[in-house]
Amino acid sequence: MTLLEILLLLAIAAVCGGLGQSLVGYSAGGCLASMLVGIMGAYLGLWIARELSLPVLLPVNIGGNTFPIIWSVIGSALLAALFGLLSRSFRSR
Prior knowledge:
It is a single chain. By secondary structure, the chain is mainly α. The chain has a domain at 62-93. Helix content is 71%, strand content 9%. A two-stranded antiparallel sheet has the order 1-2. A hairpin with a 2-residue loop joins strand 1 (59-62) and strand 2. The longest helix has 23 residues, at 69-91. The protein is globular, with a radius of gyration of 14 Å.
């Protein structure tokens, strides 16, 4: 995997993370946070899809690695919602 392919995957993860966060209405931070939420959301979304025997929706293949766009956005939205709930509960204390 080349540096360009890694940067492209990270850029796609950042966009998916940003979309997931905007769907929920909670932002964990800037571009780096969106990238991390997008990567973690992809893993969470794929895990949910495998557990429910659902197909991978809109996969992007870059350098032999497949990145699931739709499951990444869904997983990112779930993570952002969880982060929002946790931050709200800690702020109220």
